[in-house]
Write a structure and sequence with these properties.
The protein is an alpha/beta fold. It has one domain. The protein has 11 helices and 12 strands. The strands form 3 sheets. Strands 1, 3, 4, 8, 9, 10, 11 and 12 form an 8-stranded mixed sheet that branches. A two-stranded antiparallel sheet has the order 2-5. Strand 9 and strand 10 form a beta hairpin. The chain is globular. The chain starts with a strand and ends with a strand. The mean pLDDT is 95.
Length: 247
């Protein structure tokens, strides 16, 4: 089982790891693309105004440009500790047992506009780049990642891929046969609506359940059962879509 988490725009500072070594990251077939994007991002950081435009930053966010400027020299930390925010608060890797933290490193990956996808333990620096960004001279990020990212993910030796990425990040590298998750609110009258902000929380809770369980997940039925045992209400929409229902 592999669970692909969405990244977050917010990231923790610092770290104790050595500076970024792209060749040491998981999915080494993606190294040439990572090198191209990283070089473009560092070059762009030399012009703060151009960076702000390309990355969609406001005047109060120019410190993000400084992060990109030091991409190759700043310290790293495991990806699962680098990303922050609602989903990662709910996952709470630091609060897991030692056994579950080991499972988290084995079972979790994170989608990334800059790195394509990284394993939970891959050491990465803080940076700013989103799926919708356009780096000068390179066009859309989807045009850079296709078809290599999908090929790398399709080549995984795992029974089930659970793709929790948002649509923009899935578009960078769709995974054939993966299971996607939709979070819906069920209202008192029986109507349903898509959960926006808090869908990240519910996906984080789901990911925590999946790295804590001793049960095997082989298909969507066993996935629904494990997630339900974790306290979430589930519904199988199709053989490739699991719905989490909230009140």
């Amino acid at each position: 089982m592999l669970i692909i988490l969405p990244p977050s725009e917010t990231k923790s500072d610092g770290g104790r790891g050595a500076p970024l070594d792209l060749a040491a990251l998981s999915f080494p077939t993606l190294t040439p693309i990572r090198q191209r994007l990283a070089a473009a991002l560092v070059d762009l950081a030399a012009d703060p105004e151009a960076s702000a435009t390309a990355l969609g930053l406001g005047r109060t966010q120019l410190d993000e440009v400084a992060r990109n400027a030091t991409l190759y020299t700043s310290p790293t930390r495991p990806a699962i500790e680098r990303y922050t925010g609602v989903l990662y608060d709910a996952l709470d890797v630091g609060g897991l047992t030692r056994a579950s933290r080991t499972k988290a490193r084995d079972r979790l990956a994170v989608g990334s506009a800059l790195f394509g996808v990284v394993r939970a333990g891959d050491p990465i620096p803080a940076y700013r780049l989103s799926a919708a960004s356009r780096l000068p001279g390179l066009g859309t990020l989807a045009s850079q990642w296709k078809p290599d990212l999908s090929a790398a993910l399709d080549d995984l030796d795992t029974d089930v891929v659970i793709d929790l990425r948002s649509g923009g990040y899935r578009a960078l590298g769709p995974v054939a046969g993966s299971i996607e998750v939709t979070v819906l609110t069920e209202n008192a009258d029986g109507s349903r609506s898509v959960v926006s902000h808090f869908n990240k929380h519910h996906k984080g809770v789901m990911a925590r359940t999946l790295v804590s369980t001793r049960r095997s997940v082989r298909d969507i039925s066993s996935l629904a059962s494990v997630v339900a045992d974790g306290g979430q209400r589930t519904e199988i929409a199709s053989d490739r879509e699991l719905v989490i229902l909230t009140d």
